[in-house]
Amino acid sequence: VRKSGTGMPVVGMVGGGQLARMTAAAAVGLGVTFRVLSESESESAALVTHDVTVGSHLSLPDVAAFAAKCDVITFDHEHVPGPILAELEAAGTLVRPGGGALRYTQDKLAMRETLRALGIPCPRFAAVSSAADVEAFAGGRLPVVLKAVSGGYDGKGVWICTSTAEIEDVIAHGIPLLAEEFVPFRRELAALVARSPSGQGAAYPVVQTVQVDGICREVLAPAPGLSPDVAIEAEAMALRIAAELGVTGLLAVELFETHQGGLLVNELAMRPHNSGHWTIDGACTSQFEQHLRAVLDLPLGSCAPPDGSFTVMVNLLGGTDPDIFDRYIHVMAADPAVKVHFYGKEVRNGRKIGHVTIVGGPQDDVAAVRDRARRAASYLRWGTEDGD
Amino acid sequence: VRKSGTGMPVVGMVGGGQLARMTAAAAVGLGVTFRVLSESESESAALVTHDVTVGSHLSLPDVAAFAAKCDVITFDHEHVPGPILAELEAAGTLVRPGGGALRYTQDKLAMRETLRALGIPCPRFAAVSSAADVEAFAGGRLPVVLKAVSGGYDGKGVWICTSTAEIEDVIAHGIPLLAEEFVPFRRELAALVARSPSGQGAAYPVVQTVQVDGICREVLAPAPGLSPDVAIEAEAMALRIAAELGVTGLLAVELFETHQGGLLVNELAMRPHNSGHWTIDGACTSQFEQHLRAVLDLPLGSCAPPDGSFTVMVNLLGGTDPDIFDRYIHVMAADPAVKVHFYGKEVRNGRKIGHVTIVGGPQDDVAAVRDRARRAASYLRWGTEDGD
Fold first, then answer.
1. Interchain CB distance below 8 Å, A284 and B333
2. Which of A28, A126, A129, B314 holds its CA 20 to 30 A away from the CA of A48?
3. How far is A49 from chain B (nearest CA, A)?
């Protein structure tokens, strides 16, 4: 049943953040009807989506009523409680990704155990509930990484502990925790893939991500100088994880590239992901369109960038002056090839309020393009090109 | 005054067609607030725009009330009556393009006379009001072209007359007419430029357009084999026309390339234009984003395609079977690099309901890419790859 007057299917996205906002834009050309369940009328996606339902992702009645107006529902975030997902699926709603896959994003211990059982390389880990557990796990080697089993994002819920006192502080939060070995990586990579319910898979080029304080700041697509063997290994690993966990829609696999050139899985996300924002400007099919295609079980689009091109994305963080418009004009004038994407969010210091991308061609130098993108983001934030 | 809670300006577009729809998508990333004045809730743009006002572009109260909620108003079409534009401007509304420029799209005789006075090459023309006037103008050379002075589009309002009887049929309509010499052209080109109120100009690569029965069917961007001198001449001509006529926003100049390689201006449009739809996928800044930047007097974006790339666009016309969805799935599966853009319009035979684009790289052949794009559009229309 296609619940739209246009004869095209209806996708409902639970959550009104920037991922839903960018998905709304992708739905326009694709021609599918797009609805959003948003906590308020002022959320990022609610400002630009035609069909906004205000409601809570924590309320079964709200989510069920929303789902009843859609052919399939999907998610802007991973915070819908498992029991709600289970109820919806039991009632016949097409939930993509389904609760069976999403639980691995809500329970990092289950994710780690499952990946280990599949033979996917991960950092060494253990469930811990006391400082003694952590000490036993670490065996005297510090730092050690502690992670909240559920609810973490953007560096929240991850602690890199360098002393017993720090370990005790984290334990004192009283939340379920996982200890992981600290991996001294060469760099961080991300492999983004799509998988449809029919089992079709598609892989974007593997990218390098640059994190500061746990927040993604830059993405270089494709990852500069990555050996083709490692790129293929990362793509194959992500496609295999998507298939083994039953993911539908997008799966982002955050990876450590070790100094020996090996790969270890750091985190998983089952939705459009910050490491894929570059695809709006830099790939044939944006990750947002791809997610819509995948959750609708439509044939997937080409993930390819234009021949010989590369893309640099820099996240735009808010600064201390909320009136960004004059700085925006400066950036547009300074570099006509900069693509600024705003999320419609109030400016707050350190908050992700948008991103900047520049697509480079065969004649361009990655470092020079990266410098231009950084300057644009810096100017938008601070009014100077050489800020943080 | 920026009339938006996000601190970004508000653009209102009068008219709810596909141009407004695609502009709505462009506004999302740009971060400006976008509103539409649409004749109904079911128009193309009204289906995807957050802020839709239902009203008539022929009603001064409707347009004025809409304009009061916007920092600047612009247009999806050229049918707002001149007196309404004049009233709005007298009241201080920022109308872009303004009535002084738009009148040249509503009065082809004024357009021709003004271009002639500027020394811009045009087909020979004359105002005519009787068959005798037309015969005198044609001097025995048929065919002769008759055009409605106002209101024509997509081949409507243009008649290529090959006999006195046909001329008399057109005269019998009793509308103001213009006679033009029939130009036996090599091909049709289009030059698309943007001009901001501050006077900044930007030119897209000149494209070849292929018309069938007065309807644009294909666009090849850039125009294959066009000499750089002619390309520069066309771009300079379009920029000059934009400046001389005081156009703000986009200006599309439809051109004949004669067998001698000369250029003649056929038509003008002061809005995003079918000949520029390729820019969504094939240029750094889409024409829709560029129009928003220009009418807001923001610095213009780069018009450049990725290095070495070209784009083919084929318009998607409706066929006789309205249920397009299964054919859409076929097309997505057959060619993952095809970009289909739907307008949310009911399928009717011969109606423009979307367009298809494919971006080719330095290794690709224009004819082969054009064939792929045609096959996709044909399959969507007829369920066969080799239809019309």
1. no
2. B314
3. 5
